[in-house]
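Q: UTP30, please. Structure only.
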Amino acid sequence: MKGESQIHQEEINKQQNKAAHPYPLQRRRGNTATKSPGGNKDIFEVKEFADGTISRSHVSAVVKAAVKLGQRNKKQKSNLFEGDGKSINVQIGGIKIPKESRSHTLKCTLPHEVCNGSLGVALFVKDLSKDFKQDHEPTVHHYNELLSSNNSKSLVSEVIPLRGLKSEYQTFELKRRLSNKYDKFLADKRILHRLPLGKFFYNKRKIPIPVDMESKNLNEELKQALHTSILPLNHKGMSSILTVGSTAMKMEDVVDNVMKFIEIIKVKYPGGWKNVRSLHIKTESSPSIPLHVSTISG
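A: Structure for UTP30:
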């Protein structure tokens, strides 16, 4: 029988396999490309930034284009960044496959909170007792008190003990509902790989962010987690997607997050910037818009 840690990792791998690949580009006149989603012909300039220095104006233009395309078939709004929040993502593709034999994730702490705040945050916590038959309400009470004493109660909408997760969300449908219930999920790092989550969490890029519930500065620990997004990585060479914001956010805040993500991958992405084949911006309903495409051969 597969362990929970193995299942957790397999779900990350499945999410990477299903990651949307860049919309096919047709090269024309050197550095321009044509996209034709839904019969619409839009010209996007495909640029290469060999040194990783991508201008803020270029990032802003690409983010705005992705949001606009995502709303093309919907009722037009006066402000592209108002209304129901839909995720805005950065898709990254590498040139050479990392040598690591196992998949892992890259934590990216961004300047602005990436969830739109309309649904709130759930926190998975460690049970106080190992007895499975023990009522988990004392655990909920304990951690709510801990949050209150650290001026952090407003940061978390619901505390869910591991035992409560296992007993109350056993079916796929219940797990799907839970994944839709909150914008973001945090988890005590001591139980992160024991969480019996379904594919819905990974498909929606709602992988729980690990937090240290024993931190001496719990408030800061939680705030940092709310500004963190997860980039799944593996050794199979697939592209990966990280959420950098939502359409409910101000455009400048989304751009800030993208700029910070670029700085992070220069240092933490396997092989650094030289190993980045492409960066694309996409929303839940838009094609992938190229932000950077490298011409370096593999």
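A: Brief note, in case it's useful. The chain has eight helices and 13 strands.
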